[in-house]
Amino acid sequence: MHREIDTLILTPDDMGRIDHDAAASGLSSYGLMERAGQAVAAAALRRFPGALRFAVLCGPGNNGGDGYVAARALQEAGAAIAVYAFGDPATLKGDAAEAFGCFKGPVFALADYAPRVGDVVIDALFGAGLSRDLPETVIRTINAVREKVLPVLAVDLPSGIDGRTGQVRGRAFEAVATVTFMCRKPGHVLLPGRMLAGDVEIFDIGIPGRVLARHAGHSRVNTPALWRVALPTETSATHKYVRGHLAVFSGGATATGAARLSALAGLRAGAGLVTLLSPRDALATNAAHLTSVMLKPLDSEDDLAALLEDARLKTFVLGPGFGHMDKARHYVRRLAETGRQLVLDADGITAFRDDPGSLFQLFAASDTRLVLTPHDGEFARLFPDLAADKGLSKIERAQKAAARSNAALVLKGADTVIAAPDGRALVNDNASPWLATAGSGDVLAGIIGAHLTQGMPAFEAAASAVWRHGEAGRAAGEGLTAEDIVNALSGLSEIG
């Protein structure tokens, strides 16, 4: 059963407003801190039953307050603890001061912590609110913990990770696990933060859903629960044209493999028919490798005009191995003018690097019919200002780019972000590292095309394709090739 807190992503600023509103509604803010700290202590005892000592590192704010609650709970459970503070705990304010006052035990300066074998570090220094580089004292502590290879349990987010962007601010703890509260923050799902957070436990500390909903934005973790209703349905009346006709543009005779991967992926992903549009000099090469995918010559304007007379051919993939930039721009213009849906990838994106605005204008006055699938380098060609803005998170870059281009945008990587022009954004977290192989992106483009041609809206088509691509990578396993990804694709009816 889907729970909102399982997929919701909130920025630290959003979470701050939620905490404020929760207190204003009559909830005890210290009661929330008490539940948070108790959850951390419970996770520590459950995960590290063999710990000789819990070294609780407390910061100068509410994250430190959570640490003092956790330290008291561990002490009451009979565990050996030692508490170290960054800054003078006597200067704490509000709930953190109350938590410190309730803890009965010595508190040492963080600079005095000497990590030792058998320690489990509970990192309650800064959490998700960090937006500046760490002080040198904290960096030295992190280095000492890493040198001893001690396990770390992070409170909210490992200290050193910017909660809004996932970037490391100088240095960061690498946690075995992180206990966060109510929902994930961008730092939990964006790299490198995601790799440093370890297993993320989301603990409901009791903030009502209505308060969360008031400040929740449009960012979620990509899961089937968010787009399953948009999946195409099969009935006894379904035939190949109901399932849609997808066309993929091929490159020249020496660059045909990428387009064939897209075409085969589109067919495997559910398109009723797939046609590879091939230059005549590449027909023999393509024909030698295709059976279930149809093949059609395409060189001239007359060829394209004849093709576009068929209204059933409504979705195209352009870019994988295409090579010819002038021709790519021309084809895109003709597809836009005739109301077609388009997945633009690889060379199709690069073709517009000198004038990205002309691409955006082609699709500006319509419903979302364009899906862009750039990796970071291709993204910088279309959106150089957004790529250069280090103050933006990957989620924010994708959202702004989708709005500018009126496209569903898939900003690829191990933390792929899918964004819609209306501000919705999903972060994918099921990708296998083995997907980082030649042709993987071509397969993804074909899956997106298949979903589009079966009638899914562009954003849902892209999000579901990215998720299926990730699941196929898991199924294919270590050492996979792009062909293995195609063969490992599950059917739509198998999506849970």
TrEMBL record:
Its cofactor is Mg(2+); K(+). Residues 223-496 form the YjeF C-terminal domain. Keywords: ATP-binding, Isomerase, Lyase, Metal-binding, Multifunctional enzyme, NAD, NADP, Nucleotide-binding, Potassium. InterPro entries: Carbohydrate_kinase_pred_CS (IPR017953), CARKD (IPR000631), Nnr (IPR030677), Ribokinase-like (IPR029056), YjeF_N_dom (IPR004443), YjeF_N_dom_sf (IPR036652). CDD domains: YXKO-related (cd01171). (6S)-NADPHX binds at residues 62-66, 127-133, 156, 258, 321, 375, 442. It catalyses: (6S)-NADHX + ADP = AMP + phosphate + NADH + H(+); (6R)-NADPHX = (6S)-NADPHX; (6S)-NADPHX + ADP = AMP + phosphate + NADPH + H(+); (6R)-NADHX = (6S)-NADHX. Its EC number is 4.2.1.136, 5.1.99.6. PROSITE patterns: YJEF_C_2, YJEF_C_3, YJEF_N. GO terms for molecular function: ADP-dependent NAD(P)H-hydrate dehydratase activity; ATP binding; metal ion binding; NAD(P)HX epimerase activity. GO terms for biological process: metabolite repair; nicotinamide nucleotide metabolic process. SUPFAM superfamilies: Ribokinase-like, YjeF N-terminal domain-like. Pfam families: Carb_kinase, YjeF_N. K(+) binds at N63, D123, S159. Residues 15-213 form the YjeF N-terminal domain. Binds 1 potassium ion per subunit. AMP binds at K412, G413, A414, D415, T416, G441. NCBIfam families: yjeF_cterm, yjeF_nterm. PANTHER family: ATP-DEPENDENT (S)-NAD(P)H-HYDRATE DEHYDRATASE, ATP-DEPENDENT (S)-NAD(P)H-HYDRATE DEHYDRATASE FAMILY MEMBER. Homotetramer. Bifunctional enzyme that catalyzes the epimerization of the S- and R-forms of NAD(P)HX and the dehydration of the S-form of NAD(P)HX at the expense of ADP, which is converted to AMP. This allows the repair of both epimers of NAD(P)HX, a damaged form of NAD(P)H that is a result of enzymatic or heat-dependent hydration. Catalyzes the dehydration of the S-form of NAD(P)HX at the expense of ADP, which is converted to AMP. Together with NAD(P)HX epimerase, which catalyzes the epimerization of the S- and R-forms, the enzyme allows the repair of both epimers of NAD(P)HX, a damaged form of NAD(P)H that is a result of enzymatic or heat-dependent hydration. In the N-terminal section; belongs to the NnrE/AIBP family. Belongs to the NnrE/AIBP family. This is Bifunctional NAD(P)H-hydrate repair enzyme. It comes from Shinella kummerowiae. The gene is nnrE.
